[in-house]
Design goal:
By secondary structure, the chain is of the alpha/beta class. It contains 7 helices and 7 strands; from the N terminus they run H-E-E-H-E-H-E-H-E-H-E-H-E-H. Strand 3, helix 3 and strand 4 form a beta-alpha-beta unit. It starts with 7 loop residues before the first helix and ends with a helix.
Length: 211
């Protein structure tokens, strides 16, 4: 077991979660070496389940901050828990300037931010929902690389998923792609659209290669 880089709380949580994630659920992580050891970074996973944030946190070799929908912060005990684990409330109906400013500050401090580019959980049979421009916006304004992440076998009913994972009928897999450099894209709406398209294409490649 190699401890992730980050705060003491992050390392302690990793130690406690490791036996469950590794031996009971049986998470397999591929491409962890694609996450640079230093520098600002945006992790961009697909999103089908409420367990996706802790799965990404387990897979990353560095501590990460999360942009999360504000509805998750309505129940105070849960809000305190996810805030403790670096969740940042994001209003999806309008631009959440506070969340974006905070995310930019963290990236400028060479931290990792995790954002689900689909903007919500994918409950359809489609491989991916259309991507929002938020990931590209943050990347172009901070020069942070984007790492696409495909979480495989994370869809479906919660209890059934856990049952299938424990019995190894299906394995929860995390496929981490190579970083996308923002430097070849212009910092305007056209650049945001092009970078978002590039991210979408790279995610589709990850999905195809994970079959």
């Amino acid at each position: 077991m190699i401890l992730p880089k980050g705060s003491l709380k992050w390392k302690i949580t990793y130690i406690l979660a490791y036996p469950i994630a590794k031996f009971i659920i049986g998470i397999k992580v591929y491409g962890r070496e694609n996450i640079p050891e230093n520098g600002p970074l945006i992790l961009a996973p697909n999103h089908r389940s409420y367990i996706d944030p802790p799965v990404v946190g387990f897979a990353s070799p560095r501590e990460t901050y999360f942009l999360a929908k504000e509805e998750l912060f309505k129940f105070k005990p849960f809000a305190m828990l996810i805030t403790f684990y670096n969740a940042i409330p994001l209003k999806r109906s309008v631009e959440s300037k506070t969340a974006l400013v905070y995310a930019i500050e963290k990236l400028k401090e060479n931290k990792i931010i995790t954002i689900f580019p689909e903007g919500t959980r994918n409950k359809t049979k489609q491989k991916l929902l259309p991507f929002k421009l938020g990931v590209a916006f943050l990347s172009l304004n901070t020069n942070a690389k984007i790492v696409p992440i495909y979480i495989k076998n994370n869809g479906g009913r919660a209890l059934l998923k856990i049952f299938l994972w424990i019995l190894r009928i299906k394995r929860l897999e995390v496929h981490i792609g190579k970083p996308i450099e923002p430097s070849s894209f212009t910092n305007d709406r056209k650049g945001q659209i092009e970078l978002t398209k590039k991210l979408y294409e790279e995610m589709l490649k990850l999905i195809e290669n994970a079959k």
